[in-house]
Amino acid sequence: MSKNIVFLFLLIIGFCNFAEAQTTSNALKEETNIYEKVFDVPLQVVDRQSASFDELYAQKPVILALIFTRCTGICNPFLVKLKENLQFKTQENPFQVLVVSFDSRDGISDMRRLAQNLGLEDNKQWTFATTDSISRLNQSVGFEPIWDSLRQQFDHDALLVGINKEGYITKKLIGLREQADLELLIGSVNNIFSPTYRLPNQNSLFSCFNYDPVTGKNTPGLGLLFLALPAVLTTLLLVFISYFVRRSRQKRVQLN
Asked: What span, in angstroms and rounded, lies between the C-alpha atoms of 122 and 115?
């Protein structure tokens, strides 16, 4: 019984450490390459003339999304979520969305099909493209997809990169994000100051970790306690059962 308790305790500690490591890792990735200039790659654009990257961001700031059309994981929900969250944005702060494939197997026809599947083929705010210099683009924005030969898929982050009209990276977001995060991203490409961390608010009461901008560290939050609560209750229940069983045995021995 005691071995089970120790195992559950170690499991809780391991989960906490893993969650904190994941949070810290993504936070560090979002800070890489900030205020560096994106590499000016040539782009093959769906249903438009080919252009260089600097021609696009010189017209309007760019929100860059890196995907591949054969993805069976995050890419499609990532773009669907982005489309939904950007519907509330008009011309208050001008920007354009550039979706670029990082898979050399993708061609213009693949990207056109993707745009059609998303219902964005006629949306002038969205541009779908490929490039022959994807490795240079990936390097300039700090994007590192890893090929898994067994699954024939890339392991990669769901990455959004904000690029202003001068071609500098102003902000990065990793993962499926909400409107508040995108507002900060859009503001940054329009040279509106935004913090690089989330300020505490009533919606972050049950977050797993709380970021302290003064110390730069994450501390466990109430959300982590709620995640660990089932394991803690199970441990307490096992302790209680073990104690009850021992007491019952002792009483039977005394009676005999």
From this structure: 9
Pairing state of beta strands 153-155 and 96-101?
unpaired
pLDDT digits (tens, 9 = 90+) for 70-109: 999 999 999 999 999 988 655 567 899 999 999 999 999 9
Residue with tokens 């560090």: 28
35-195 CATH choice from 3.20.20.140, 3.40.30.10, 3.40.50.1360, 3.30.70.270 = 3.40.30.10
Measure the CA–CA gap between 223 and 212, rounded to whole angstroms: 16
Q: What is the pLDDT of residues 181-191, one digit of tens each?
A: 999 999 999 98
Under the banding of pLDDT at 50, 70 and 90, the label for residue 18 is very low
Residue 38 · residue 141 · CB < 8 Å: yes
The distance in angstroms from the start CA to the end CA of the chain is 26
DSSP per-residue string spanning 149-167:
TTTTEEE---EEEEE-TTS
Give domain limits for the chain: 2-18+223-255, 35-195
Please report where in the chains the tokens 């040539």 appear, as a residue.
Answer: 42
**Higher pLDDT residue, 53 or 234?**
53
Contact 101, 110 (CB under 8 A): yes
* b/e map 197-231, b = 16+ CB within 10 Å: eeeeeeeeeebbbbbeeeeeebeebebbeeebeee
Is a pLDDT exceeding 90 seen at residue 130?
A: yes
Position 212 confidence tier, pLDDT thresholds 50, 70, 90: low
CA trace torsion 133, 102, 78, 227 (10° rounding): -110
CA–CA gap between residue 81 and residue 117 (Å, rounded): 14
